[in-house]
Structures are given as C-alpha cells and as structure tokens.
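Handoff note, outgoing to incoming analyst
You'll be picking up this chain. Sequence as last confirmed:
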Amino acid sequence: WTSCALVDPDRGVVAESLHAPPEKAGEILPGALVDLCGGDLARVDALAVGLGPGSFTGLRVGLASLKAIAYARELPLAGASSLRALALAAGGTGLIVPTLEARKGELYASAIEGGAMVVPETVMPAASLPAFVERLHRPATVVGPGARANRASLGGLPVVDEPVAALARCVAQLCAAGLRGARHDRNAVFALAPEYLSALAAEVALAEGRVGGLSG
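Most recent structure output, in case you need it:
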C-alpha cells in the first residue's frame, strides 16, 4: 500500500490518500503526490519519506521518486523509520510493537514507547513474534501489516488494526522538526538511503553461490 499526505505545519493534514499496490512499481507515487497538491507542486516546501524497513522495490521506488522531485524543485528531503511512523499512527502512550511484512513467513518489528525505540528494528520469522513480545516483560500492543499477514503463525497473539492511511502524515510529523526552516541540500538528498535490514535476494544468491537461479 502507498500512503501519501499533504501536511501544513499550522493547519495539519490538508489532504491524504491511500493506494493499493500497483501491478508495476512506480505507477502510483508521482501522480498521487501531484493530485494531492491540486496539480501544483509549487505548493510544496519540503518532502518526507518512509525509509523502511519494508519491501525492497517499494522502498527504492518511493525514495527515488521523492529524490527526483527534491532535485527538480530544489526542496529539502528527510526520512523517518517506517516502524516509528506505524507506532505513531497506532496512537496510545504504552509500549507498541509495530510490524511490517518482510519475506514470506518473516516480518520486521521493534518496540517503541513514547516515540523512543526501546528495542532496535529487527527481522524475524513471524512465529517468533510471540516470544519477542513475551521477552519485553510488559504489556504491549502489536500493530501492523506484518503481524496481520501472519496471524496463523502467531499462536493467538492479539493484533490491533491501525489506520494505514495515516502513515504518510506520521512520517511527516516525525520529520517536521528537521525540515522546519531547512533548505535544499543536494548532498543530503543523495545520501538518504532506505533501511533494508535483511539482505537483498541477489546478495543472498551470491552468498550461496547461486547466480541466475543456478547452483555452482
């Protein structure tokens, strides 16, 4: 899913949209941003993007799209953890375990409280999530598509639905302080990189001695 939002620092959310995954990566994001701005990107003063962890292709496309706009419009660009944004979207003040889908049977997770990440982002088999939560030794709210997509592997662990459409506004909220008064920095835009956590499929194949689907 692709979440987009136009946020005014004084008025809050001006517009937001949520789009189902397209058949081809990159078909949605640029057009969705233009639509939110009423066809006029001149209304935009800064850009914020989720850096993952998440889909390799999705992260690359999202960041590449925002970088292209930042370069073309000479806008500042900042990024934030997608798991932090997910925890913020869930609301509440207690301990939150946000999850995102990884490779089949795996998920990304962390533990966040009051905006602070008390357990670093990690990737794990979905079946390991109940033990992960148990090791926190405190009540925690589990949220996110990673857990929802793997309910059958969670041994009945409760999962709370969060407003997915709010993810973009939450990324903007996390980046707001750093973007306030910021100017375009070409080097900073170039250096911004996604957080993958797990190795790319090609890197795994290379490490295992497989190239082009063949075993060596």
